[in-house]
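Q: What would this chain look like folded?
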Amino acid sequence: MHSVRIALRSTVSGRPNGRFLANLLPRFTSNRIAGLALAAIALVPTLGCGNSYRPVVSAISPVGPAVQPSKYAVAISQPGAAIGGLMTLVDFSGDTNLVNISVGPNPYYLLLANGGGTGYTLNTDGTLSTFAISTAVQTSNVQTTTLLPGATPNSIFANSTYVYLTDPGRSTIAQLQNTPPSLRQELPVTPGYTPVYIAGIATAPRAYAISQSTIAGSPGVVAGIETTTSTISTTIPVGVSPVYGVMTADGLRVFILNQGSNSVSVINAQSNAADAATPVIPVGTAPVWADLAPTRTELVVANAGDGVSPGTVSIVSIPLCTSSDLPTNPNCNPTNPVDAVGFGDVLATIPVGVKPVMVTVLQDGTQAYVANYADSTVSVINLVTNTVTATIPVAGRPIWIASTTGNPTGKVYVVTQDSVPQPGFPVAPTSSLMTVIRTDTDAVESYVDLQGKGVSVRVTAP
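A: My prediction, written as structure tokens:
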């Protein structure tokens, strides 16, 4: 268990993994991901006594100590089919591998909640693992929730009270509570639709469950989840094959990426309906991921393209108008902010690498980093000039990327499922290397050995 620190870079290759990535790129990766999706159907059938709606919870011991006042990257990997997944805790300041603990077997999705203090993984044996993000956490602190028979969840959303799982296997949104999480209820999904993701923030009164139609080429829907009453309040049509969504930090707008119709649907979360002024924003071909540049009131959208030619990034202006913000707009309303002039305008369409899968934006609004799966690179975009300023080779084909600011430098963490030889390695590593990039120089600072196939990485602070 160690970190590998190398200051050089190399062009590499590999292949992706993960059920959630399959939702993002069904046109490009479905055959390679099918094996994992089938493995996810291996479920634990044991139920809690007397209640068919309550999963068995195996609490090994209490979740570990409280979060320490530091910043970390949290990565998960798959050491092997018969081995528990691995969580690797990496120190921001020194790229040091601080902690390794085992989670459930073959984890395929990671979420950090409670301000980065709690981690959750979905595992292919039909379980949910819960653990504290702390340098004192041990494998014995990991808690396990066994899900209901037939459950094949593909994403997690959490607020201060509940944990929600989108579950296509049972055509529901599972709502869990307490520590470790146990099932409270299952919220229904509209018949004929498959849930794929929940867009929301922990402090908002409602979140939106995104579902695709089971009929190819048909529009999807989003369902408003009232987190205070635990009910579905509305169902709103969106575009074809919606795959991802993001809510603004004020909770007023939600942007749904429609991969099949090359568009972004806009939801006014305050009126709980499609945005009246700008319901749809056309973007590039096959949008799959987006991040917000809050200091610039912009949405940065990664478009996968056709998988052969370079993909693109769309920079979309999304300002709102109140009596104090952009007051020259004639429709300013202090209690119900409306779209300001220019809302929905595509400011730039920027070519990046081949088959981009994810984009992350520095919270100071200066730069965006795009993970390009097919050519094993990260494109660096200057958000002031809307141009690509660097292309950085990484240690394999990237499947997840996360960033955090810092002084004098922030960091970008890139997880790949596989690795190829890097400077200092005589042969290809047997496990994936997470690439760590400095944001002041846009150069690779180090590699961290994940001791297995990389799955995901999150940071405890943006």
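The longest helix spans residues 26-39.
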